[in-house]
C-alpha cells in the first residue's frame, strides 16, 4: 500500500489503512504528509497524531520481531541436524566395529570345527513360542525362576568403554521417563524430554508475543495484532511437519510419527492464538478503542466488512481443522477427517490471503509445501498402481500382499523399501469416495532395500500390509469395507503411495551389540522387518567370508549371525494373532540367533511381566543396548520406563518408540 493510497483513505478507516501498509516508513511518511486541509488526518490533535505515530512504530516493531521467529526455527533445526549427523557417524563406526568383531568370532568358530566336519554346539539362539511361563531363556538354567522376585536391574558394572556419570545418568533417565496419563481425561503424555522440548518452543512463542509489548490498554491493539502475526509465522512450520516428503525427517532422524506429535502441538497452539487474536480484536473494537479511530461501532458494519469476513472465514476453517483432528474424531470418522483436512486447509489459506496482506508470503510458502507434497511428489513420482492379493487371517485382520522383481529405477515402492517404512494405500474398487482416500500402513514384510543395483539373479520383493479392521468407525469405514471385500475377493487393484520412513531406528540398532525389540499386537509389523534385516545382513556377511574357506561345512550356516545378541518379545491378545507371521519365518530367525519370546495370549493368561523380561535382557547386556518398542500406549510406556530405570543405574541404553494408530 503506497503513501498516496494511505492518505486517500476515509478518516474513519485511518488505523486499518496504516496497519495494512507493507512498510513502516511508508506509513510514517504518509502520516507526516497527510496533515493538510481535506486530508484524513485533518482535525486530529497533536496528541492523537503522536499516539498514531507510536502505535504504528510499535506495530511494525512487533511484526519485525515475530518475523524473526523462523530464523530461530532454522537455527534449531540446524543444531538438531548437526547432532543427528554426529550420532549417525558414531553409529556407523560402531556398526563397522561390530562387523569386524563378528568376522573375528566367525573365524574363531571355524577354527574349532573338528576333522569330522561337525562344529561345537551353540546356544546363541532360543525360542519360547507359546510358553507356559512368561520367559524361559534355557531349560537347564531358568525353568524354576520366578521373574517377579528377580531384581529389575543388574548390579554389575557397565562396560569399560562406557563411563557412567551419576548426574548425567539421572538426567538422561529423567528425560526418558514417561509419566502416566492424565487422570479423568486419560490423555497420554509423551516423555519428559519431549515435553520439555515442546514447552521450550512454546516459551519462544510467548516471548515473541510479549517482547517489547507496551503494557497499556491504549496499545491493546498491538497485543491482538501480534497474536495474529504469530499465527501467520507458524504456517510454514505447520505445513512442513505435515508433509510426508519433508527434509526434517532426514535432517533430524525422527520418524514421521515422532514429528507428527510436534505437528499436532503446533496446530493446537496456532488455533489457540487464533482465538486470542479474534477475541482481542473484538474487545478492542467494542470496548477499548476510542470513537475517532473506528470506522463504525455498529456490529453489522463491522462483521460485514470484507476484511473481517475473510478473517472469520480463516478462523472458522482452522478451528474446524483442530476439532476434526482430535484423536476421538479421527478414530470414529477417519475418512471424514481426511477429506476435511484437504478442503479446510485450502479454504483457510484462501481466506487468510484476503484477510491479512502481510500474510501472503507465508501463505505462498505453506501452499507450495502442500501442493509439492500432495500433488507433484505423492500423486506422480511415488504413486504406483498394481493388483494385490487379499487374505483374511481372522475375524478382524487381513493381509494385502504382492511380490515383484526390484528395479532401482522404478517408481515408489517398486524400487524397494527399508524396515519400518510405511505406505499410503488407496483402493478405488471400494467406491468413488475411497478413490480419493489414502490410508497409512507400515510395511510388515522383510525389506529388500532400495536404491541398490540389481544383483546377479535379481532381487525379489515380498510385500505385505497387516491390517486390522476398525469396527469403531461408521459402517463405510475403509478398513471395515476392505475386510468385507476380502471375504469375497482374492485380489484387488490398489494404489500405493510411498515408501516413507526414517533410517534412524535401523542405524541405532545396527550400532548396538545388544538389541531388544518389543511388539504389541500388530506392532510386529515394525519389529519383524527390523529383526529380519539385522540377522540376515549379518548372515550374508558371514556367508561371503566363510565361502572363502573351503573347509567350512554347510551345517555351520545355522549359527552365522552372531555379531550381536537380538531379543524379541511379541505380546498378542489372541492365539489367532500369533499366526500373523508364519512360524517358518520365525524359526528361520531363531536359527540365525534370535532369542524369541511369545507369551500366551493376554485374553487367556493376562498381561505378561514385560518390565521383568525387558529389564532382565538389559541386565544381561555386556555393553550398550538398543531398545525398540512398537505397540499400544501402555506397552510403550512400560518399556520406555524400564529403559529409563536402567539408564539411572548406569546402563548405556538407547530407546526408540514407534507408536501406531490412526
What do these coordinates show?
It is found in: Membrane. It is a single chain. The chain has helices at residues 3-7, 14-19, 24-33, 46-67, 69-111, 139-142, 166-176, 192-210, 220-233, 235-242, 247-252, 256-288, 299-303, 306-324, 327-332, 334-355, 360-381, 478-488, 504-510, 524-546, 583-591, 602-605, 610-620, 633-648; strands spanning 126-129, 383-392, 397-405, 416-417, 422-426, 439-442, 449-450, 460-468, 491-500, 514-520, 565-571, 594-598, 625-630, 653-657. The chain folds into 3 domains: 118-185 and 505-657, Rossmann fold; 195-379, no CATH class; 383-500, Beta Barrel (Elongation Factor Tu (Ef-tu), domain 3), CATH 2.40.30. The chain has 662 residues and is α/β, with parallel strands linked by helices. The protein has 24 helices and 14 strands. The model is unreliable at 1-14, 106-125, 129-161, 451-457 and 548-560 (pLDDT under 50). 51% of the residues lie in helices and 13% in strands. The chain starts with a helix and ends in a 5-residue tail after the last strand.
What does the secondary structure layout of this molecule look like, with pairings?
Blueprint (H helix, E strand, L loop, with lengths): L2 H5 L6 H6 L4 H10 L12 H22 L1 H43 L14 E4 L9 H4 L23 H11 L15 H19 L9 H14 L1 H8 L4 H6 L3 H33 L10 H5 L2 H19 L2 H6 L1 H22 L4 H22 L1 E10 L4 E9 L10 E2 L4 E5 L12 E4 L6 E2 L9 E9 L9 H11 L2 E10 L3 H7 L3 E7 L3 H23 L18 E7 L11 H9 L2 E5 L3 H4 L4 H11 L4 E6 L2 H16 L4 E5 L5
Parallel strand pairs: 1-12, 10-11, 10-13, 11-12, 13-14
Antiparallel strand pairs: 2-3, 2-9, 3-8, 4-7, 5-6, 5-9
Amino acid at each position: 500500500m503506497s503513501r498516496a493510497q494511505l492518505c486517500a483513505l476515509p478518516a474513519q478507516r485511518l488505523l486499518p489503512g496504516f496497519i495494512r501498509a507493507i512498510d513502516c516508513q511508508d506509513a510514517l511518511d504518509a502520516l507526516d504528509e497527510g496533515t493538510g486541509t481535506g486530508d484524513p488526518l485533518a482535525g486530529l490533535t497533536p496528541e492523537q497524531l503522536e499516539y498514531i505515530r507510536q502505535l504504528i512504530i510499535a506495530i511494525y516493531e512487533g511484526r519485525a520481531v515475530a518475523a524473526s521467529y523462523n530464523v530461530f526455527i532454522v537455527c534449531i533445526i540446524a543444531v538438531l541436524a548437526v547432532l543427528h549427523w554426529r550420532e549417525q557417524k558414531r553409529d556407523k563406526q560402531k556398526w563397522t566395529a561390530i562387523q569386524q568383531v563378528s568376522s573375528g568370532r566367525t573365524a574363531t568358530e571355524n577354527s574349532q570345527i573338528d576333522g569330522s566336519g561337525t562344529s561345537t554346539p551353540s546356544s546363541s539362539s532360543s525360542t519360547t513360542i507359546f510358553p507356559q511361563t512368561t520367559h524361559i531363556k534355557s531349560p537347564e538354567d531358568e525353568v524354576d525362576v520366578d521373574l517377579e522376585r528377580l531384581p529389575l536391574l543388574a548390579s554389575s558394572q557397565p562396560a569399560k568403554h562406557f563411563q557412567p556419570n551419576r548426574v548425567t545418568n539421572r538426567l538422561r533417565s529423567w528425560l526418558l521417563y514417561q509419566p502416566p496419563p492424565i487422570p479423568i481425561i486419560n490423555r497420554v503424555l509423551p516423555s519428559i524430554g519431549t515435553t520439555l522440548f515442546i514447552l521450550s518452543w512454546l516459551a519462544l512463542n510467548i516471548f515473541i508475543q510479549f517482547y517489547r509489548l507496551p503494557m497499556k490498554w491504549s496499545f491493546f491493539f498491538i497485543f491482538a495484532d501480534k497474536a495474529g502475526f504469530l499465527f501467520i509465522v507458524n504456517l510454514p512450520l505447520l505445513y512442513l511437519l505435515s508433509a510426508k516428503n519433508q527434509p526434517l525427517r532426514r535432517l533430524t532422524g525422527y520418524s514421521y510419527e515422532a514429528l507428527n506429535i510436534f505437528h499436532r502441538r503446533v496446530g493446537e497452539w496456532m488455533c489457540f492464538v487464533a482465538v486470542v487474536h479474534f477475541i482481542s480484536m473484538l474487545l478492542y473494537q467494542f470496548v477499548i478503542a476510542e470513537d475517532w479511530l473506528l470506522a463504525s461501532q455498529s456490529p453489522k458494519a463491522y462483521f460485514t466488512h470484507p476484511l473481517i469476513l475473510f478473517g472469520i472465514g480463516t478462523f472458522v476453517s482452522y478451528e474446524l481443522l483442530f476439532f476434526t483432528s482430535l484423536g476421538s474424531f479421527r478414530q470414529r470418522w477417519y475418512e471424514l477427517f481426511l477429506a476435511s483436512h484437504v478442503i479446510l486447509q485450502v479454504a483457510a489459506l484462501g481466506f487468510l490471503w484476503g484477510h491479512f496482506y502481510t500474510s501472503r508470503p507465508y501463505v505462498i510458502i505453506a501452499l507450495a509445501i502442500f501442493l509439492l507434497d500432495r500433488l507433484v511428489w505423492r500423486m506422480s513420482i511415488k504413486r504406483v498402481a498394481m493388483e494385490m492379493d487379499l487374505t483374511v487371517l481372522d475375524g478382524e485382520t487381513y493381509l494385502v500382499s504382492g511380490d515383484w522383481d526390484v528395479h532401482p529405477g522404478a517408481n515408489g515402492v517398486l524400487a524397494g523399501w527399508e524396515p519400518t517404512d510405511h505406505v499410503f494405500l488407496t483402493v478405488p474398487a471400494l467406491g468413488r469416495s475411497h478413490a480419493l482416500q489414502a490410508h497409512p500402513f507400515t510395511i510388515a514384510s522383510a525389506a529388500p532395500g532400495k536404491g541398490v543395483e540389481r544383483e546377479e539373479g535379481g532381487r525379489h520383493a515380498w510385500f505385505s500390509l497387516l491390517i486390522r479392521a476398525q469396527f469403531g468407525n461408521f459402517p463405510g469405514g475403509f478398513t471395515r469395507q476392505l475386510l468385507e471385500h476380502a471375504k469375497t475377493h482374492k485380489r484387488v487393484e490398489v494404489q500405493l503411495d510411498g515408501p516413507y520412513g526414517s533410517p534412524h531406528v535401523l542405524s541405532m540398532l545396527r550400532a548396538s551389540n545388544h538389541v531388544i525389540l518389543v511388539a504389541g499386537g500388530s506392532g510386529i509389523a515394525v519389529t519383524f522387518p527390523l529383526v529380519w534385516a539385522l540377522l540376515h545382513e549379518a548372515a550374508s556377511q558371514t556367508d561371503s567370508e566363510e565361502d572363502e574357506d573351503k573347509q567350512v561345512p554347510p551345517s555351520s550356516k545355522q549359527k552365522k549371525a552372531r555379531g550381536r545378541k537380538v531379543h524379541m518379545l511379541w505380546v498378542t491378545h489372541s492365539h489367532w494373532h500369533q499366526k500373523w507371521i508364519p512360524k517358518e519365518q520365525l524359526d528361520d530367525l531363531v536359527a540365525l540367533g534370535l532369542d524369541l519370546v511369545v507369551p500366551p495370549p493376554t485374553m487367556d493368561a493376562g498381561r505378561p511381566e514385560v518390565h521383568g523380561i525387558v529389564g532382565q535382557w538389559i541386565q544381561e547386556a555386556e555393553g550398550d543396548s538398543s531398545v525398540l518398542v512398537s505397540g499400544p500406549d501402555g506397552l510403550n510406556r512400560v518399556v520406555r520406563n524400564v529403559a529409563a530405570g536402567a539408564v539411572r543405574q548406569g546402563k548405556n541404553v538407547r530407546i526408540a518408540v514407534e507408536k501406531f494408530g490412526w
